[in-house]
Amino acid sequence: MLSIKPGVTLNRLSPQIVLAVMIANEVYKKHGADLVITSGDDGKHLPHSLHYQGHAVDLRIWTIAPRALPNVVKELRDALGANYDVVLEPDHIHIEYDPD
After folding, report:
1. Mind listing the pLDDT tens digit for each residue in 30-67?
2. For residues 34 and 63, what is the distance between their CA atoms, to the nearest angstrom?
3. Which of 27, 14, 95 lies closest to 2 in space, CA to CA?
4. What are φ and ψ of residue 95, in 5° steps?
5. d(CA 75, CA 89)
6. CA distance to 10, 16, 23, 47, 81, per residue, from 43 (Å)
7. 2-97, CATH topology level
8. Are 2 and 35 contacting, i.e. CB atoms less than 8 angstroms apart?
9. Predicted structure pTM score
């Protein structure tokens, strides 16, 4: 199931990030986890953050079994390809569309 953390805004998501979220939802489902978007074009990020351009989202990780987390990250990287960065942070997965 895909859900959005209360207070998160997704008003300016690019089509590339919408696609990434759809793919991430399928990867999460494969591992029996619910996908929760914890940040979109909202929140406090660095001034140059791709969040503000609608090219990044953060996904909750505590719905994923710890032993499955490395596989989830690898599957996301493989499915999204070279134009996306998938970064495992201590409390979330950051996905950004960055073709440069």
Report:
1. 999 999 999 988 777 777 788 778 899 999 999 999 99
2. 6
3. 27
4. -120, 130
5. 16
6. 11, 20, 23, 11, 26
7. Muramoyl-pentapeptide Carboxypeptidase; domain 2 (3.30.1380)
8. yes
9. 0.92
